[in-house]
């Protein structure tokens, strides 16, 4: 506790130098208990910053210590392992790349569950297999802790602007405790049901997103070949039953919309490898539950092939480019 | 001309008995020239009625004479063949099931082009291969007539309520002449470009619609298997990037929305065979233009299989039911 | 040891009554050490019988004790659990439905590894995820035992006639010890490499088999629609580059071949659910290894839908029937 | 006739210089009537040479006159148009790239049917839409000529060695007259039924071939990822139910077989664009006949995408390379 208090003090001092917190009263800061944050990658780092911005003392760690520097400068306490975070915080957020990382961070030799305090609230915002989420929840419960899954919709931009949407699964009584933190990092939080349903909702959304995006790319391609102007075709689709998020908000055809990756050579946005990963999760859960997902399955294959043909790091809307037959070929 | 005038008079007399035209002044009626209408099926019949309602004398025909009865009662003049329509009207609308019917009605032995007057405006609202539309336009031009393609979005309900959307292809100078008639039968008309682009836009929209619908069905199915409530999942999708017309306006899962075919055992709506037909057109134009449409192609196959497994006459959203693994199997 | 010896004696006595072993000398019987057999289903039962026929004392168990009756009558010693088998035999064959069963039988509370003797050879003929096979091998090695995977090609008929093909993965030095037993139950054994490669080969074969079968069904269907006689079309394919096992050995069209499931209303053979299961394994290993398998993936989906549309228990060649559009639809 | 006789004489003189015809008696040459040949591309040229080799005077033409040079040197009479061929020969073979070329050569302004003599036998070895073949047959019949479709299996190599297989559709009574010529150019001819069934058989074969090839490529790729040696995996497949022409005769994995395109950087063989064309025909006939061909359809899409990603001129077995995820991606 002494250490934590000291940590908070350092935090306050540093804030004065680095961030404009003129709107945050010292009184509210003093009353907030520290929050652990594990995983400071492209998404986790801005999320943790938003917790700090909202007055939460943050105790952080990452497999790559250099990822913690920026947060340290903002006043976070940086420790060496998830276990050390668990010793110091009774609410912990995790934001990790994939299922094996989550398993390691929770149940590994220096994992959270090695030192977790009874009653700790564990919120995992990684996108992982719902079955792994359920396993983590069981393991946490054995230690007297509560695990919730809360994957996000929205990318790095939404994380910075605290505009993420969280899809939350877990015991309903604990949802409000989680919500208090999640609303500091996002604009919406939706309670989806028992543990794993947050992941399920995320996976479902991204599968339909991928289908809609590839479908939009095919359709725009076909229309252009048939002599339609891409902007006009988009307009027709968006006022008709072909309308979808990929046609009206994130159009994959260069020149149709501004401010989207297709307007910037498919840089930024949501990478093809990440989409392929999420579709792999959807495929696995579909196989496990014996659910037929023919288009989801084909979408997975298309993004898989794209990864091997040089599109791995482009935004997933680059499927428009991938499918287009070029002149002279 | 005498015959036509007589036709108009009968029309007026009958109107008084059958329809409320209190808002239509006799003056405007008197000034309107007759419009030909060929093809009085589920769609054509309410469309022709809306022309009459707007004060146009209608000269109609159909391969099945009994289809004309209702229109006759409303005052339309019914003739025996497309050629006879062409002798009597200088604006003609056609609404036919498929490409071969269009070819027959335009270029057959008793077809429009056998008797068409110079300067006649021919507007085809059938959904057909854009290549056939182009052929008809060339054939019409040889006779001094103008052909435009103007397929519709919206079903029987929209046709009755004059809420159709028309996608129009053809010479731009003639668009306004067509528009005058189209706005009597629909809420929107979009000029898409040269002849065939109306068909192209229609086909593109329906391909993306089919992809979105199957994708939504798969996604809802998977989510339900993973423990999500269907209404909640729809809500999550609709506030996220998975949103599409099939998820937010025409949800295929019984119980999620009212007033859609899924709420009524997939009766009414847009039949699976019709969707399979439109996807066949999309596939053919894609093959002809060497365009890759992997999801569109698979959607076509899925609707094709559904036609053979008892879903031919159900609404196309019944793909949700088709893909769902039932209990005990 | 006394129990086992007694078991063997009973075995010999019972053999004289039920099976013709006139060609098996008592001398060879006496010299053979007992073999454990776990999993006496449709496949395991005839496989175990063939071991007995070849003079091996068999110590058997199954989750459903009634499955052991026939084997008991043939002289096998029946025990209560995999652990008890492991106490009594130093070569054990397992033949189980799926990965979870294998995990239970090997590592469960009454599993083989609870009582396995050092140096025991464990041969698993189940078709499971290669990753699970590797896990079992590691677990076995910790106990000083050797695990090999040896899934089979060929169905119940081949199992009865000892005509199975085994695809074997594991330490090469142990292969010959396994081969001695496998050749009693099959016509071929192929050494494929390290642990898991037997499963890999099996999964690969069945994925290509499914693709070839669906492809053959589609092709025959299309040819028949185009006016070709099915027997003639099969002949043409089989002398050309379209030739495959499904066209020349197991044709899915009724009337083309005798003695195959398509000649018997798709009864018998290899059930659609089993194929769907194997394709699920292929899909999972493909996702895990980031391998693009578009046709394999679609084949999986097709068999998955068939399971839900009443084809679960028909032979997998019934996809011909599933895809065929019936008259009047 | 004088012209033809002169042609034949030149033919004989030239033969003595260029080709070894020591086994061909002058007597038989004298008795053979000339054969027309239209379309001297990669396939047509060696086919026409084989007719000459078998003693048939050949009267040839091609849209690109330079294509005729080699044949001219071998003694063929070269004329300017299909119509001129039709004036001089009463048996004519055509070998053209696609449906529009066939329509032009038969029914165009300088087409065969402009000058065809009654009773002429027209044999089209192009691979085209069966519906176009039927139209040509009707048009030929009106002129008193007989049209048969006889597309080939086997590539340029088989054409040179007279090892092609012909699949023949048309009136059965005329089959023997066609067979006499076809057996000079190929090893097999199969009578398939009425006009169009030769094309149907060809299209069906190539659709199944494409499915088998992509399936083999996926399977080999997956197996290699799972640690199997490609040669060993091929051996296992070829002795099991995964066996197909693409696995045992034309394996797509470099290093598995000699003398196939995969051993030569996918040079030579059957190009991806040609396969995409044939799959487009299969798709169109399937759409027209309302036949579900899900794998055939996806195969079409895959080859279509390959055409746009730089594989257009590689052998179609290069799909193995296309689907493989490279290191570091």
From TrEMBL, chains A, B, C, D:
Gene Ontology MF, one: NADP binding
Keyword Metal-binding among record annotations: no
Organism of derivation: Cynoglossus semilaevis
EC number assigned by the record: 1.1.1.31
Pathway note: Amino-acid degradation; L-valine degradation
PROSITE patterns assigned to the protein according to its UniProt record, in alphabetical order: 3_HYDROXYISOBUT_DH (PS00895)
Name of the protein: 3-hydroxyisobutyrate dehydrogenase
Keyword NAD: yes
Domain 3-hydroxyisobutyrate dehydrogenase-like NAD-binding span(s) in chain numbering: 196-322
One biological process term in Gene Ontology: L-valine catabolic process
InterPro entries: 3-OH-isobutyrate_DH-rel_CS, 6-PGluconate_DH-like_C_sf, 6PGD_dom2, 6PGDH_NADP-bd, HIBADH, HIBADH-like_NADP-bd, HIBADH-related, NAD(P)-bd_dom_sf
Compartment(s) where it occurs, according to its Swiss-Prot or TrEMBL record: Mitochondrion
Enzyme type, top EC level: oxidoreductase
Domain 6-phosphogluconate dehydrogenase NADP-binding stretches: 35-193
């Amino acid at each position: 506790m002494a250490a934590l208090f000291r940590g908070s003090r350092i935090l306050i001092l540093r804030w004065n130098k680095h961030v404009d917190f003129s709107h945050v009263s010292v009184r509210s800061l003093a009353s907030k208990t520290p929050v652990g944050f594990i995983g400071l990658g492209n998404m986790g780092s801005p999320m943790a910053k938003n917790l700090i911005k909202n007055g939460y003392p943050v105790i952080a760690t990452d497999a790559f210590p250099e990822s913690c520097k920026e947060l340290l400068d903002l006043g976070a306490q940086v420790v060496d392992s998830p276990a050390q975070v668990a010793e110091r915080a009774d609410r912990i957020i995790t934001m990790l790349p994939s299922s094996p990382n989550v398993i390691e961070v929770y149940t590994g030799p220096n994992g959270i569950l090695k030192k977790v305090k009874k009653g700790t609230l564990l919120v995992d915002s990684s996108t992982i297999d719902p079955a792994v989420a359920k396993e983590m929840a069981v393991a946490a419960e054995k230690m007297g802790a509560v695990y919730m899954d809360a994957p996000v919709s929205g990318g790095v931009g939404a994380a910075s602007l605290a505009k993420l949407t969280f899809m939350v699964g877990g015991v309903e009584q604990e949802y409000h405790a989680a919500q208090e933190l999640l609303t500091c990092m996002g604009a919406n939080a939706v309670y989806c049901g028992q543990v794993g349903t947050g992941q399920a909702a995320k996976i479902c959304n991204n599968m339909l997103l991928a289908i809609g995006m590839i479908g939009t790319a095919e359709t725009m391609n076909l229309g252009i070949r048939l002599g339609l102007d891409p902007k006009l075709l988009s307009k027709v689709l968006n006022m008709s039953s072909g309308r979808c998020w990929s046609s009206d908000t994130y159009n994959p055809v260069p020149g149709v919309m501004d401010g989207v990756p297709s307007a910037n050579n498919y840089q930024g946005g949501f990478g093809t490898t990440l989409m392929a990963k999420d579709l792999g999760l959807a495929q696995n859960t579909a196989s496990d539950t014996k659910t037929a997902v023919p288009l989801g399955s084909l979408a997975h294959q298309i993004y898989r092939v794209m990864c091997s043909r040089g599109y791995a790091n482009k935004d997933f809307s680059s499927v428009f480019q991938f499918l287009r037959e070029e002149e002279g070929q």
